[in-house]
Amino acid sequence: MSKAIRVHAHGGPEVLTYDDAPAGKPGAGQVLIRHTAIGLNFLDTYYRSGLYPAPAGLPLIPGGEAAGVVLETGDGVEGLKKGDRIAYSTPFGAYCEERVIPAEKLVKIPDGVSDEQAAAMMLKGMTAEYLLRRTFPVKAGDTVLYHAAAGGVGLIFGQWAKHLGATVIGTAGSADKIALAKANGFDHVINYRDDDFVAKVREITGGKLCDVVYDSVGKDTFPGSLDCLRPRGMFVSFGQSSGPIPPFNMALLSQKGSLYATRPTLFTYIAKREDLEASAAALFEVVSSDVVDIKINQRYALKDAAKAHADLEGRRTTGTSILIP
């Protein structure tokens, strides 16, 4: 019997239960897969807690990225066969041993990329891809600020941004995390617990400030992130690990230098099949060519998902974590 982690009622990590969950048979355009590794993301905690509404109501199987192998294909599926290694970053429902999933959501894992790497990087890596290449196309000479530099997205982002020729500034909350970020592409890392990150950004840039700020922290870094931007710079808010940004008057953007602001999500950026394929291909290329090293720093058994969530929310993890079915 296939097992899955389910949320029957919103709450803390303790609401994650390890249940029987038969996957069923694939229908037309669908594929039955067996997971070999599952990604762990802060986004998963938002759905577990109820901060984000469950896509299909409760009970909810969390998880937005995984890797595995094709067990069976339904009618009309082309380009995939039994035994193919695959990965995905949507739809939700990855915390399970087996599942049926639309074939159009899957991409093949190329040689040179392991299942664990793929599971650890699909959501995080394609998030870094759209942030760096499409939301604000970073180029050589740009100065960027990225909050939570030692997180899963941050470590991929730092390496990739440095490869693009940017000056990469990050924030982190401990000496260990600062060292980790610096080892992964960040030129400067500010300890937000000890220093005023706005003042440090001014010091680092000689008062020129940043072309773009990438902020997944939310409440605790707003509106300071806006004060790190040059006139007509871009504020990219793509998460809220400290809580949501409170409502604010749009005039604040004009007062702080005619700033741009956007709230993107990966799901919009890969909604079209061609965009998914292009994003995954760009990610696989930088990983297989050793531009980006995917570091898996924590591994948990699927049944221990509650501990994984507690560690993630308690900021006891660094880089990328995965669940092993």
From TrEMBL:
SMART domains: PKS_ER. One of its GO terms (cellular component) is cytosol. Keywords: NADP, Oxidoreductase. GO terms for molecular function: mRNA 3'-UTR AU-rich region binding; NADPH binding; quinone reductase (NADPH) activity; zinc ion binding. It comes from the Bacteria. The keyword NADP applies. Residues 11-323 form the Enoyl reductase (ER) domain. Pfam families: ADH_N, ADH_zinc_N. This is Quinone oxidoreductase. It comes from Mesorhizobium zhangyense.
